[in-house]
Design a protein that fits this description.
The complex is a heterodimer of chains A (268) and B (250). With 268 residues, chain A is mainly α. Helix content of chain A is 76%, strand content 0%. Chain A contains eleven helices and no strands. Chain B has a single domain, classed as MetI-like (MetI-like fold, Orthogonal Bundle). The chains are: A mainly alpha (268), B mainly alpha (250). Chains A and B meet through helix 1, helix 3, helix 4, helix 9 and helix 11 of A and helix 4, helix 5, helix 6, helix 8 and helix 9 of B.
């Protein structure tokens, strides 16, 4: 969703701290100080344990769904590029449906739909998994994983298709088996190409996690809502929440830029 | 297995449930769908307005304006839409009411519709700023210089040269945003605005036919996406008229 990278106005060689920027930073500090002093933060000591638990759950959901989603996205992308026609069609249909409907609807479909469907089958209720299936988090994980897989599957499709044919032919000429070509050449090249987009997708995934609060999973967002309900403090928890998400998003971008920096690039 | 899996769907009497008149809930769903489209359209239009202003400000504005706009796009894109909607949906009407009280007007109720459009438009504006900024930068500089050399004023230059020339570069990004706008309207269900997703949940809750209704709503969203894609393809073709075809797309 970001525009093409072209000459950025802010990238021109100019001193980092110009007068107007110092003034802006000063204004920001004054605003933050005023917010810290004059807004109500007396609820913080009572709720910080709960908030940390929520933060932990948000991060945990983010990491698990991203990893599982990516693991699904690779075969989805590959099926669209190199699979037989029926498999390619199936993968494309999956990605279209996931990308064409709101995540909230998918989440509610799985949670309410499967939640109403499962109890009708006695063998599910008698199974070992039933105590787990009665909770909300498996549905949250499933829904976010599928959504991640749908979006990243499309990204990986482009990435797989973008690997130069000559490299794959060269690998085959070395006598590599198809699996080895995939593992040593095709996948690494595709991931390298897709890495900047995957960083964006991961931030988008972070921004989707608060939706799980609507199906009673207590993540960071749900904690903020509860603080609002308990204390009648309206804006402060939300502002702190927004700040926390910004910090996490910044961390994600930083981690991915470190990953990108590890890949040696030969300037031709 | 497949028959037993489909059984709960068949039991409910799908067509009676989805009938457009009151015993069925189809009318409610369609009503919600229409208000989803209205909100999405309004938010997209507002977002385009913000985005055009933002892109021009970032490219041609002073350094202060540049930094302010950079903070706007960075902050908005780093915070979940749900949190922003919750903040804006309640804060903007609150603010407007307070300002009006100070000025001396009585209570003025900003409806849920306007608040939703403002909240979503503000979010979409941040993304549109980046899309349009990239598109304007992609316009060959010579064309804009030629326009200036003809003595065009800034507004004529924008209307006649920059906007039409950048359109082909902007349309893929804007099309993406248009679909995001429609999907984001579902988030207003969380603040209690009755658009398609909330109507669906109410219908599903009342009849216990969860699968039927959520699937039907999903089909409506999907239909909208697919129909939009057809129109977007036409618009893109129109915007690209007179340009050489891009390598690999024909």
């Amino acid at each position: 969703m970001t525009g093409p990278r072209t000459t950025d106005v802010s990238l021109r060689a100019e001193p980092r701290f110009e007068p107007h920027r110092i003034a802006l930073i000063a204004v920001a500090i004054v605003v933050i100080a005023a917010a810290a002093l004059f807004m109500r933060w007396d609820w913080l000591p009572d709720y910080y344990m709960l908030a940390l638990e929520g933060l932990w759950r948000t991060l945990w959901i983010l990491v698990v769904t991203c990893v599982l989603g990516f693991a699904l996205a690779v075969p989805l992308g590959l099926a669209q590029v190199a699979g037989p026609p029926w498999l390619s069609l199936l993968a494309r249909a999956f990605c279209t449906v996931i990308r064409g409907t709101p995540l909230l609807l998918q989440l509610w479909l799985l949670y309410y739909g499967l939640g109403a469907l499962f109890p009708q089958y006695p063998w599910i209720r008698e199974s070992e998994l039933w105590p787990m299936l009665r909770q909300a988090w498996p549905y949250a994980l499933l829904s976010l994983t599928l959504s991640c897989a749908g979006y990243e599957g499309e990204v990986m499709r482009g990435a797989f298709a973008g690997v130069p044919r000559g490299e794959l032919e060269a690998a085959r000429a070395f006598g590599m088996r198809p699996w080895k070509v995939f593992r040593r050449v095709w996948l690494p090249q595709a991931i390298q190409k897709a890495l900047p987009t995957l960083a964006g997708e991961t931030v988008l995934q972070l921004k989707s996690t608060p939706l799980v609060a609507t199906i009673t999973v207590i993540d960071l967002y749900a904690v903020a809502l509860r603080i609002r309900q308990d204390t009648y403090v309206i804006y402060e928890p939300l502002l702190l929440l927004a700040l926390t998400y910004m910090v996490i998003a910044g961390l994600i971008v930083w981690v991915f830029s470190r990953l990108e920096a590890r890949i040696p690039v030969r300037m031709g | 297995m497949t028959t037993s899996f489909a059984l709960p769907l068949a039991q409910a009497g799908v067509f009676e449930l989805l009938a457009p008149t009151p015993p069925g809930w189809g009318g409610n769903l369609l009503g919600g769908f229409v208000s989803s489209i209205k909100i999405g359209g309004g938010a997209f239009a507002l977002g385009l307005l913000f985005g055009t202003g933002g892109a021009y400000g970032k490219l041609y504005g002073g350094r202060l304006l540049c930094d302010l706009l950079q903070s706007y796009t960075t902050l908005i894109r780093a915070v979940p839409e749900l949190v922003l909607i919750l903040l804006i949906y309640f804060a903007v009407p609150d603010l407007i009411t307070r300002i009006l009280e100070i000025v001396g007007y009585g209570r003025f109720d900003v409806g849920g519709f306007a608040a939703g459009v403002i909240a979503l438009g503000f979010v979409i504006g941040a993304y549109a700023t980046e899309v349009l900024r990239g598109a304007i930068l992609a316009v060959p500089q010579g064309q804009i210089e030629a326009g200036r050399a003809f003595g065009m004023s800034a507004s004529v230059l924008m209307r006649r040269i920059t906007l039409p020339a950048m359109l082909p570069f902007a349309i893929p990004g804007l099309a993406n945003l248009w679909l995001v706008a429609i999907k984001n309207t579902a988030l207003l269900a969380v603040v209690g605005f009755s658009e398609l997703t909330l109507e669906t949940r109410q219908a599903a809750g009342a009849t216990k036919a969860y699968f039927t209704f959520f699937m039907a709503a999903g089909a409506l969203y999907l239909l909208f996406t697919l129909v939009s894609n057809i129109f977007i393809g036409r618009i893109e073709q129109w915007a690209r008229r007179g340009q050489p075809p891009i390598a690999g797309t024909h």
